[in-house]
């Protein structure tokens, strides 16, 4: 027996296995583990809490048993995630309701088909959220981004039929993919061109299709500048110079256009002038409007030369003289109308002289339609010439406002009587619009932009009057503030109408400037419920644009920092949006990407003397550097304090448990 057992293989004891002497006796009472967080009553009694509601000590003592989640960091994180999940589900429900209620001929059929095909909640959310594909892809690691983009890109690409088929070669060396170039050209002439129109579309497309590098209305410089702008509207990964870098939209085409423009060595041609307009636009959207301003100065000089030599350019034309005349007039109209929008927004003096130009015939040609590419939907009447003429007339008034406020002879403090005269002229312009473009609802982007441009001018010029009014002028101050908040809400209404009709990713670039000025105007009047709602609605639009455009990102951060600095009481929804923006989108490195003149309107209007030094202090990149550092420091301090409080709470719990266990051991 003994011999047999001596030959038995001995199993080695595992490191974590208790020894025989350490195994608990069956008769030994089992120790009850403490709860990870004691209830409030046990904390007060300084007794051991074993968990559960009610816990055993509270049940025996017949006391109320409550858990304080705020003192438990782990529970608070889980609780926060649960709230975020519920908020996402609620937002999805509201999106579904709004889609079914107001978008029956567009998105609703697709949503219903997804639901009936047993699509997941995530797929439905992706379909509804027009900004999700690009924004979520921007935040993913490169490998996951490629997989996610490919999944949804394939679906969209299959149904993507460009409005305009054009060749990639010989116009650009960035890509030889004609389908992609056709996609970008179609996006540009659908969403950008109706708002900032300095190119005769039909003449440009005809010459681009000809592949003739010597054509009059198309050139590699112009094509690359257009493609660079169009990349800000695309979901294609080819629209990024670096697919792993969200801020690189259109940079490859932009750099190619700038290179070609440099090689032109200042040669004055129609397409070179037009290209400068789009290069300026790209630079601004990238958050580099200091560079953009340099191109705007070049545009002003080129426009001056074209106005002086217009007849000579037309006489030297080999071919249809009327085509060249029409194209030059379109360019001069469009670039002049761009100038006051830029100078008012940047609070700079006008740099283009007021031109004497003829109006376009408002003939309402049957072929003058606008189709919301890439959506398959019915076309709307574009009213292109009516919009051109209306924009030009509005531009003349805005030019005079800009010259008065920021020109060489600007007053120490704006005269309220002169500003009131501008306002009456703006009202007369608004009342005199043709019937075809006087309605903002169910209108193409060009008409929507026209109305927002009007309200933007009202907001800016009256914004310089308010700081100069004293307490004895309270009635006048209230009247002006009422005019401004009304215009701000009108901008919000137009932005909401756009979002209800088309995806926010196609909102024209001017919209972020209008939204920012409107938010600044509403920031000081949030005691009224209507203003609160409008503020939140506009903030939603700007936040969506901030996912795609660097300048919109900086503008939204400026709004957030201004509200923090002024200690403004924001609507709850707005606070949530801004907090989410700060946590998900904004990083300390973002401000380093800016070289921006864009002013903080809430600060710049406070300087009654209107000195250039004061304007410089209100510029976007300077304020972001100063205020963002302060905000991030405060946030870091708050985080450190919260972490310290959580650690202290956990240490107290641990000490209580250790003390109670030692006390139990002593009694045993």
TrEMBL record:
- Bias (Basic and acidic residues) occurs at 14-25, 659-668
Keyword Metal-binding on entry: yes
Could you tell me which InterPro entries the record lists for this protein?
Answer: Notoamide_regulator (IPR053187), XnlR_reg_dom (IPR007219), Zn2-C6_fun-type_DNA-bd_sf (IPR036864), Zn2Cys6_DnaBD (IPR001138)
Identify the keywords attached in UniProt to this record, alphabetized: DNA-binding, Metal-binding, Nucleus, Transcription, Transcription regulation
Kindly give the Pfam families that the UniProt entry links to this protein: Fungal_trans, Zn_clus
Q: Which Gene Ontology terms describe the biological processes this protein takes part in? A: DNA-templated transcription
Give every Zn(2)-C6 fungal-type domain span. 38-67
Task: Reply yes or no: does the keyword Nucleus apply.
Answer: yes
Could you tell me which residues belong to the region Disordered? 1-30, 634-668
Q: Which GO terms describe its molecular function?
A: DNA binding; DNA-binding transcription factor activity, RNA polymerase II-specific; zinc ion binding
Compositionally biased spans, kind Acidic residues: 640-658
Task: State the protein's name.
Answer: Zn(2)-C6 fungal-type domain-containing protein
Organism, as annotated = Penicillium cosmopolitanum
């Amino acid at each position: 027996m003994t011999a047999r057992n001596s030959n038995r293989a001995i199993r080695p004891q595992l490191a974590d296995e208790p020894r025989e002497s350490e195994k608990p006796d069956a008769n030994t009472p089992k120790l009850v583990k403490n709860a990870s967080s004691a209830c409030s009553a046990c904390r007060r009694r300084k007794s051991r809490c074993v968990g559960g509601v009610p816990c055993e000590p509270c049940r025996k003592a017949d006391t109320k048993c409550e858990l304080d989640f705020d003192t438990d960091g782990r529970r608070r994180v889980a609780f926060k995630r649960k709230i975020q999940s519920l908020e996402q589900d609620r937002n999805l429900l509201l999106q579904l309701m709004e889609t079914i209620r107001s978008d029956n001929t567009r998105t609703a059929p697709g949503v219903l088909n997804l639901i009936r095909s047993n699509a997941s909640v995530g797929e439905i959310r992706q379909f509804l959220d027009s900004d999700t594909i690009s924004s979520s892809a921007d935040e993913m690691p490169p490998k996951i981004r490629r997989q996610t983009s490919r999944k949804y890109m394939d679906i969209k690409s299959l149904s993507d039929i460009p409005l305009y088929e054009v060749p990639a070669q010989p116009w650009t060396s960035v890509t030889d993919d004609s389908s992609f170039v056709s996609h970008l050209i179609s996006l540009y002439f659908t969403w950008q061109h109706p708002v900032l129109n300095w190119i005769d579309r039909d003449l440009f497309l005809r010459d681009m299709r000809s592949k003739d590098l010597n054509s009059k209305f198309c050139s590699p410089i112009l094509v690359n500048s257009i493609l660079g702008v169009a990349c800000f509207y695309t979901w294609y990964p080819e629209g990024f110079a670096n697919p792993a870098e969200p801020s690189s939209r259109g940079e490859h085409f932009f750099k190619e256009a700038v290179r070609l423009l440099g090689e032109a060595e200042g040669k004055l041609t129609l397409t070179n002038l037009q290209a400068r307009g789009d290069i300026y636009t790209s630079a601004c959207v990238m958050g580099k409007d200091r560079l953009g301003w340099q191109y705007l100065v070049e545009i002003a000089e080129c426009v001056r030369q074209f106005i002086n030599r217009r007849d000579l350019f037309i006489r030297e034309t080999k071919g249809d003289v009327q085509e060249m005349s029409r194209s030059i007039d379109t360019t001069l109209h469009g670039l002049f109308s761009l100038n006051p929008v830029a100078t008012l927004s940047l609070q700079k003096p006008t740099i283009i002289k007021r031109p004497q130009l003829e109006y376009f015939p408002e003939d309402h040609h049957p072929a003058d339609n606008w189709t919301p590419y890439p959506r398959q939907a019915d076309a709307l009447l574009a009213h292109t010439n009516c919009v051109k003429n209306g924009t030009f007339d509005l531009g003349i008034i805005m030019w005079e406002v800009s010259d008065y406020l920021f020109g060489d002879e600007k007053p120490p403090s704006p005269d309220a009587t002169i500003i009131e005269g501008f306002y009456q002229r703006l009202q007369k312009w608004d009342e005199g619009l043709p019937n075809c473009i006087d309605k903002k609802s169910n209108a193409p982007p060009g008409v929507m932009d026209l109305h927002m441009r009007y309200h933007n001018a009202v907001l800016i010029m009256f914004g310089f009057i308010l700081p100069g009014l004293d307490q004895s002028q309270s009635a006048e101050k209230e009247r002006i503030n009422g005019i401004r908040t009304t215009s701000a809400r009108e901008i919000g209404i137009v932005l909401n109408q756009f979002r209800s009709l088309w995806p926010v990713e196609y909102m024209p670039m001017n919209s972020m400037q209008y939204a920012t000025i409107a938010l600044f105007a509403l920031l000081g009047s949030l005691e009224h419920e209507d203003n609160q709602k409008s503020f939140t609605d506009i903030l939603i639009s700007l936040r969506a644009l901030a996912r795609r455009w660097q300048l919109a990102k900086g503008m939204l951060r400026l709004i957030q920092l201004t509200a923090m600095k002024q200690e403004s009481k924001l609507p709850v929804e707005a606070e949530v949006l801004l907090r989410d923006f700060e946590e998900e989108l904004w990083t300390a490195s973002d401000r380093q990407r800016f070289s921006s003149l864009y002013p903080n309107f809430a600060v710049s209007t406070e300087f009654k003397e209107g000195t250039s030094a004061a304007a410089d202090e209100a510029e976007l990149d300077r304020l972001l550097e100063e205020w963002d550092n302060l905000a991030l420091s405060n946030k870091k301090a708050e985080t450190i304090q919260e972490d310290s409080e959580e650690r202290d709470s956990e240490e107290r719990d641990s000490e209580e448990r250790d003390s109670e266990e030692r006390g139990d051991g002593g009694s045993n």
